[in-house]
Amino acid sequence: MDQPLLGRVSAAGRGCCSCSTLKAWLPILSWLPSYKLKWLKMDLLAGLTVGLTTVPQALAYAEVAGLPVQYGLYSAFMGGFIYTLLGTSKDVTLGPTAIMSLLCFTVVGGQPHRAVLLSLLCGLIQAVMALLRLGFLLDFISFPVIKGFTCAAAVTIGFGQVKNILGLQGIPQEFFLEVYYTFHRIPEARIGDVVLGLLCLGLLVMLSLMKASLGSDEAPYSSCSRVARKLVWTVATMRNSLVVLAASVIAFSWDAYGYQVFTITGKTSPGLPPFMPPPTTDTTANGTIVSFGEIVEGFGSGLAVIPFMGLLESIAIAKAFASQNDYRIDANQELLAIGVTNIMGSFVSAYPVTGSFGRTAVNSQTGVCTPAGGIVTSFIVLLSLAFLMPAFYYIPKASLAAVIICAVAPMVDYQVVAKMWRIRKLDLLPFLVTFLMSFWQVQYGILGGVAVSGAMLLYNIARPRIEG
């Protein structure tokens, strides 16, 4: 069966050390010479579909990172170009994600210049890890720690958007204070935001359930049924874009008649970002210059946590889809691709990115054949930056909040608790430590969970069970 295989190397390449080495560092050389015209159609379709998913998600995730919405788009296009050159998975798409946006916010507190510098430093750390073949270090972050972190992150991100559904402003960012003041100020909720937010949530959930109920394409269907299924799948796949577009039209219509019913995104910086080195100093509101060393010191443990979590998230996604679609990836090459993406992204005002599970799933389901689909996605984002930024003024924050809540809801995996209780109850300890500490500070939750896992491992080594 004629399928694209990214790991394919010609006989001449195997015989030539320099050629095979070059292909190892630039995987595009393995699949581009054998690129077929029929793959182009599928890559274009997948890239377009993922691009229409990426734009609203990138805008929404910038809100999670506490940054102006255009920074989400700044962070969404470099990955497609770099990963096409350096990536070893045909399915993975790099860009802003909910978890990386949350981590970025906890470290830089919504300061754009520092977020961009953080991207450069994270990329350098990730690239050095790739060059030194240090991918094995990711194995020290155990499954219970990852699950505890992702569940806590989903709750934190999801609840953090409730204030936008309610149209509340001035809510503290610290989680426990955020919970208290959100409930305390419910009487101040804006009716327009509440109604629009709940409508968007309802539509997104309904379309998601419709897509899940389609089942397999392998069953015999009539031609009319196939067309109907394709239509439902297309609408459900592009649900984020369609819902945000519809909400923006509603907001614009009310605004045209002089009614400020919804809390909207407001003014954004139009056009493409300038290509320039990231700032190495910052200036506070009172004019004080903050040096590079002081900024890095302020990043603290986040400078270790963010690169690791970015690598962990992306490689886990790449391995999952490689297994599903029957090809192999190179973990250290994936590290390099993510690192170079973050380094180059910092030159176009991006904050740290990683692989996105949701967009990668869409890419795979649409039938992408090579990483070239990412180029199409990147062009969709660039076109949005170049021509659509004025239209983003009218995007209601409640619609973006609905997109985020629906994106992170599947990350709350309550079934994993029952599974750990059934298989190995002791695994609940690092899970609970990570989960609970993450509500205090996300990076402390990860570090605490890793510490507990390490202590348990050392205890088992020091006190091995000897059966007579």
Describe the structure.
The protein is mainly α. It is 65% helix and 2% strand. It has 23 helices and four strands. The strands form two sheets. It has a two-stranded antiparallel sheet. Strands 2-3 form a two-stranded antiparallel ribbon. The longest helix has 28 residues, at 37-64.
Q: Care to give the gist of this entry?
A:
The protein is mostly helical and about 475 residues long.
Features:
single chain, 468 residues, mainly alpha, two-stranded antiparallel ribbon, two-stranded antiparallel sheet, 4 strands, globular
What kind of oligomer do you see?
Answer: single chain
Give the helix level as a range of percent: 55-70%
Mean pLDDT: 86
Q: How many beta strands in the DSSP annotation?
A: 4
Radius of gyration: 23 Å
Task: Figure out the total of helices.
Answer: 23
Which segments are poorly predicted (pLDDT under 50) over 5 or more consecutive residues? 1-16
Strand content: under 5%
The end-to-end span amounts to 54 Å
Cross-sheet strand order for the largest sheet = 1-4
Order of helices and strands: HHHHHHEHHHHHHHHEEHHHEHHHHHH
Sheet having the most strands: 2 strands, antiparallel
Structural class: mainly alpha
Q: Label the overall shape.
A: globular
What's the layout of helices and strands?
Elements lengths: L10 H5 L1 H9 L2 H4 L5 H28 L5 H5 L3 H9 L7 E2 L2 H11 L3 H20 L11 H18 L1 H5 L8 H10 L6 H22 L10 H15 L1 H18 L25 E2 L5 E2 L1 H8 L2 H24 L5 H15 L8 E2 L1 H9 L7 H16 L8 H12 L6 H9 L4 H11 L3 H21 L6
Antiparallel strand pairs: 1-4, 2-3
Helix pairs in contact: 4-7, 4-14, 4-18, 4-19, 4-20, 6-17, 6-19, 7-8, 7-16, 8-16, 8-17, 9-20, 9-22, 9-23, 12-13, 12-14, 12-20, 16-17, 16-18, 22-23
